[in-house]
């Protein structure tokens, strides 16, 4: 019997992926795939909660699979699949909408509040309901652990609440998942403003390093990044939030400790540090993009086909149980 704990996580193809997605989520997944039974999904139904260009959405969905593979996720060890290939996700979301979710739960979600504040009349019901689909993603697979960046913690907590409510109102059905966030890198900030998270919805933002940015652009973005007062390269989130964010990127990409980074740049100032960081990021992205370009569309198709087949077996079993409990024939 396979006793490995189950990991589920996903990324939505609503914009080009950036260093925050890689450092906060994907790189963490790579480390987990040997120890756990992992399911990594491209959650394309989540992407359409805001308007998408259909052709770009299709392309991005496949590109994310390539990014997973180029990052080192091994499709022999982890299950990579599309949300839209396993209809149980949307079906369970409907059931949870009706049985276990209150409007008051969703009204508390800070991501919804942030995303809807600039156009309340234009906000889709899907955007409001987004966390219920996310809960369905997680609960379908008896997930033990959900590795995400810290902006998703509230959604995972809601998922636990919905599972508890369903288990209480019907019968024990869902496992309660735990959230896992990195000690460092759970929230990579914008290079322009250390108060804002690096985000794929900020299209063309010079504070965001996209994984497909050309390397000259990356260097320029880093050299133009904001720093703090003073000139000492030191990790101090309160006094030096911008430099600390840059140091975190450096630390995660090189494995060097904050202390070693500080020592390397001691007496040199921010300019030299940014040059050093630009070298680190350009080296990483150069190698990453080379791997990305070597992955074929045929490879993606193959990975997704077997991924969906395996995921469906688990998802069907859970949905069957849920329908039984609720009385859906
Ligand atoms: P998404 O697509 O916005 O982001 C994908 C992952 O990247 C993390 N992340 C960051 N981490 C560190 N610093 C940042 N600046 C940064 N920006 C994004 C996110 O926390 C996330 O882990 N709702 C999810 C997708 C989803 C999901 C799920 C995740 C749908 N169903 C089930 C886990 C389990 C989302 O929008 O992520």
Automatic annotation (TrEMBL):
Residue sites binding L-tryptophan per the record: 137
Keywords on record: Aminoacyl-tRNA synthetase, ATP-binding, Cytoplasm, Ligase, Nucleotide-binding, Protein biosynthesis
InterPro entries: aa-tRNA-synth_I_CS, aa-tRNA-synth_Ic, Rossmann-like_a/b/a_fold, Trp-tRNA-ligase, Trp-tRNA-ligase_bac-type, Trp-tRNA_synthetase
Subcellular location: Cytoplasm
Cited function: Catalyzes the attachment of tryptophan to tRNA(Trp).
Name assigned to this protein: Tryptophan--tRNA ligase
Organism: Candidatus Falkowbacteria bacterium CG10_big_fil_rev_8_21_14_0_10_39_9
Subunit structure: Homodimer.
């Amino acid at each position: 019997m396979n006793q490995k704990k189950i990991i589920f996580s996903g990324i939505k193809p609503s914009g080009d992926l950036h260093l925050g997605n890689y450092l906060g989520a994907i790189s963490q997944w790579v480390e987990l795939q040997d120890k756990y039974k992992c399911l990594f999904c491209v959650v394309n139904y989540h992407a359409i909660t805001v308007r998408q260009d259909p052709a770009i959405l299709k392309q991005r969905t496949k590109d994310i699979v390539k990014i997973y593979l180029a990052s080192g996720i091994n499709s022999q060890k982890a299950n990579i699949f599309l949300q839209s290939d396993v209809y149980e996700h949307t079906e369970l979301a409907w059931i949870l909408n009706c049985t276990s979710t209150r409007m008051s739960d969703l009204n508390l979600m800070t991501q919804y509040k942030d995303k809807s504040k600039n156009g309340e009349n234009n906000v889709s019901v899907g955007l409001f309901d987004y966390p219920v689909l996310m809960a369905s993603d997680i609960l379908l697979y008896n997930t033990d652990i959900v590795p995400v960046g810290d902006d998703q913690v509230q959604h995972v907590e809601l998922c636990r609440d919905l599972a508890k409510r369903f288990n209480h109102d019907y019968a024990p059905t869902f496992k309660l998942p735990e959230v896992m966030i990195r000690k460092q890198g759970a929230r990579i900030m914008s290079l322009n403003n250390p108060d804002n998270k690096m985000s794929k919805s900020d299209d063309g933002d010079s504070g965001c390093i996209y994984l497909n940015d050309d390397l000259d652009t990356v260097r320029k973005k880093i050299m133009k990044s904001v720093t703090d007062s003073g000139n000492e390269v030191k990790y101090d989130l309160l006094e030096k939030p911008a430099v600390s964010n840059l140091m975190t990127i450096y630390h995660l990409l090189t494995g060097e400790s904050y202390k070693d980074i500080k020592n390397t740049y001691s007496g040199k100032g921010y300019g030299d540090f940014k040059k050093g960081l630009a070298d680190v990021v350009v080296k990483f992205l150069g190698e990453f993009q080379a791997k990305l370009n070597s992955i074929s569309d045929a490879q993606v198709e193959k990975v997704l086909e077997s991924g969906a087949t395996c995921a469906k077996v688990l998802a069907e079993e859970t949905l069957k149980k849920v329908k039984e409990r609720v009385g859906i024939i």
